[in-house]
Amino acid sequence: MIVHLQRAATTAALIPTLYGLDDLRGQLRPRLIGADYRGADKQLPLFGDPQEVLGGGVLDAPALRIGSRAPELPVWMCSVRSDPLQPDLSDAQWADVSRRLVTATGLAPTGDPNGCRWAAIRNDDRSVHVVATVVREDGYIHSTYRDPFHVQAKCTRIAAELGYLTRTVTTSKDHRMPAITIDAGPSGSVVATGTSDDLSAALLRHAGFKQIDDWHGRRHRLPTTTPRPEAAACATHAAEMLRAARYKVDLDPRLDVQPLATVGQQILDLSDELRGSTDFAELAGVLDRLLDPDDGMLVRLQEAFETASEQITDLDPDQVELSDRFGSSSDQLVEVQAELDGAVDEVRRAGSRAPGATDGRGTDDLRTRAALARSTTPGMSTAAAPTRLPPASATSARPAARAR
Predict the structure, then answer these.
(1) Does residue 175 surpass a pLDDT of 80?
(2) Most buried among 14, 137, 195, 304, by the most CB within 10 A?
(3) Contact 213, 283 (CB under 8 A)
(4) Which phi and psi angles does 368 have, rounded to 5°?
C-alpha cells in the first residue's frame, strides 16, 4: 500500500481534488463509506454523496471553535492506494482500513469521545481518502509529527494481513527497495545517501533533512547548526519511518538514540556490571537484580519455562514429552534458586570481612589493649593495672568457611 499525506485550510478546498474538477480525464463520483462526526449538532450521513460533509464545514467546526489557536492548515487528508496486482477491497474493508489509520495516528483513538472528526471517501478503485481535522473536540491540537511513520507502519501490517506481502524468489533483475545510509561525518554533519526515489526523499524531509542535488547526486543532510542530541533524534526518527516503508537502513550507531535492548543484551550488561564491581557491596547490589526472589532475572526465566510447558499442553495435550522438557528445566531452575538462597547476603557479609575491614570483636580487643597500655604508664597506680590478656585469636579475623 502506498500512502500520501497532505494538508488543507478547509475541507471545501479538497472538493476539486476529490470530485476530479481539476482533472482533464473527467469528473469523479466520490462516495462516503464511513465517518465519525463526534459532537456534531446535527444528523449527518455515513454513506452516499460527501458534498454535505465537505462543503458544510462539519469537519472544520472544532478548528473554528478555537479561533486563532487553530493551525494554518487544520485539515488532514491521507490517501491510500493498494497493489494493482491484488484484488481490490470492498467499501467495508476500506472503511475498516480508514478507522485503523486514524486510530494508529492518534487522531481518533478507540474509546476517546474527544478525538478528531474524520470521514472516509472513495472516488476511484483501489484507493481511499481519509479526511480529518487535527483539532480535537476538547480543543487540543493533534501533533502530526509522527503520522507518516504510524500510517506507513499500519498499512504495511494491513497488507501483510491481506496476504499482499508474500515471499517470492527474486533475481538480480527484480526491483528492490534502495539501501539508505545515515551517517555522521567527521565534521559532525549528518548525511543520508542512497535516497534515489521520491518516497524516501519525502520521509527524510519530514524528519528535518534538507535535500541537496549536485554533481555528487541526490543526498539529504541535517543543518550543520543542529545540536548533536537533536540530530541523533532526527536520524533515529528518519530510520524508523524508512524501515516501516520497507527500506533497508544502515544507521550510524552514534546516532541511534533507541538501541534495541534485547533480553540477551540486558544479561550481557549485567555481566559487565558484575565484572566491573569494585567492592562486595557493589557486587551484591548487581547480584540482587539477578537473584531477587520476587522480580529477579532467574525467577522470571523459571516462570517463563513453566509457562511454556503449560502452554504446550494447552495447545496439544499429546505433546507430553516436549512439555516435560520445559517443565524439567523449570524444576532445575527452582533448585538453582534454592542453592543460591541467601547468597547475596553472604556476599554482603564477605565485604565486612574483607582486608581492611574490622568486625566488632576486633574493635573491642583493640580498645581494651589501649586502656591497658594507658593504665601501665608511669605515674599511674599499679593496683589499677589488670591482668595481661592473651593475644587475640588469629582465627577471629578469618572468615567462616562457606556452608554447602
Answers:
(1) no
(2) 195
(3) no
(4) -65, -45
